[in-house]
Fold this sequence. Notes:
The protein is mainly α. The protein has helices at 8-14, 16-33, 38-41, 63-92, 98-126, 136-139, 148-170, 177-196, 200-225, 229-265, 282-285, 289-296, 306-340, 350-369, 374-380, 446-453, and strands at 50-51, 56-57, 269-271, 302-304. The strands form two sheets. The protein has a two-stranded antiparallel ribbon. A two-stranded antiparallel ribbon has the order 3-4. Strand 1 (50-51) and strand 2 form a beta hairpin. Helix 2 packs across helix 4 (63-92), helix 5 packs antiparallel against helix 7 and helix 5 runs antiparallel to helix 9. It is globular and about 65 Å long. The two termini are 26 Å apart.
Amino acid sequence: MKRPSSTLKEQIVDHQIGLAFTLLSALVAIHLCFPQWRSYSQKFWQLSYHDPASDQYNTGTDDLYLVIFWIVMLTGLRATVMSYIFIPIARWGGVHKPKARMRFAEQAWLCLHHATSFAVGMYIFTQSDYWLNFREMWTAWPDRKMDALLKRYYLIEFAFWLQQILTVNIEKRRKDYHQMLTHHIITCALISASYLHHLTRVGNVILCLMDIVDVVFSGAKLLKYLHFQMACDVAFAVFMVSWVVARHVLYMMVVFSVYGDTQDAMHFACYDQNGIQADLSPEAANSFFQVIQPFLDPQGVACWSPKVKWTFLTMLLALQGITIVWFGMILRVAWRIINGGTAEDSRSDDEVEAEAEEEEEEEALALDMDPEGLASLQHHHSPHQHRNQHFLPQPTTVHPRPFEQEVGVEAIDFRTKTARPSKAARGYRKVSSSSTSVTLPGHHSDRKELLGRIGCDKTT
């Protein structure tokens, strides 16, 4: 039996499947029962701004309907496959602890999404005229048209990363909350800006470069949880190679193309929705307003100016700076693992304490499902254990009145020692952390956390 949810966020987390199913069912019912509203309801699952003459699509504000639909769909789909597919697989694979099974399910979902996204993105990339020719990413600008597959792929990717922002805010807050939130916001900003500025070609390439690394990373984590030590070591090596090639070599080639190729293939100018050059002064074309203008009017004037160019370069280089910091941490941990022989030999001395603390969390999870065990737990532990456990009622301790008795010196026994309570008995609890990326420095246990994130240490 599970304890009742006490907050709105807990209610949402506990009923993600039901909420998503209810919203989608209501949308379908409205579409079927109210024909006069179908022109609005169909926008949630059909692409908008179709041009019958070219059989391609333009951009506009109605694209938000499809994005909202996929945020709800991905939320329900994620909760469903995690609960009914990935967690049972983890249990069958020998992952015994509930928290470890949940982490396995999270990584399996991310691996599934990024693998699917990478496959679709690479198909679009290989079928394009900019395949292995980055200069061609710019030659068609300001062509606003795109085919159905590219548009749907781009909008679903945008919905996925918006849904990730929702996930990190409604679910249990992790240690790397701020780093992950910042990463998701930057990613959404780049996807939306490239979409509205009609730079989907370069966006397609960057998404492919990011997805392949995430697939290998999540796959290595899955092998770790399933105790495939040799396969995990190999996957970790592949992960490091793919990281360097995709996120530092090829990615910087794309960034250089933004800086260099655009000077030859594109001209600083503004164009209307028909591709006709707009009559704007150089000062107006290079104003900051033209950076945000496509967000305000997606079908209005689109400009390529030095300010727009350097806005994209700044965001791309900031993202590269974050990945350099992460990779530096990965190299330090990998060096320690090599010097120690195996990943599990490189764990810090605090790991034993962390394992004890995790056992306490598992005991608490068991109480959530079996409230009748509360009495036995209270009998077994001292009241100090419950000070920081918000899910247990605070015991009211009635202290008896002390009584005094005169005793002789011979009655004093100095051999009896009072055992110092452990961290678990003092009520100390560690906040769990699970993520698809490596956290930035600044925490007390960076080395230990990174060993758990990217190293193939044994799952306790």
